[in-house]
Design goal:
The protein is built from 3 helices and 2 strands; from the N terminus they run αααββ. The two termini are 15 Å apart. The protein has one domain. The protein is of the alpha+beta class and 70 residues long. It has a two-stranded antiparallel sheet. Helices cover 50% and strands 23% of the residues.
Amino acid sequence: MGKGIDLARGAAPEHAALLDDLKDQLLIVFLKRLGGAQDIPVAEVDDTYQDLFAFRVNDGVFHFEIRKKS
């Protein structure tokens, strides 16, 4: 994960920094929506290798989804 951001660091470091900040902000928002602190087993985090996180913004609203890698 993060390979796209790593590729952007050389050509567009400001974009890479923006995406890094966005990821941090999203984690905060998602945790707030889940009620705050969460315990997540390491095995569950390790089991995300087949998934992709995708998002788009329409009319000022983020839309997030998880997709399977093809």
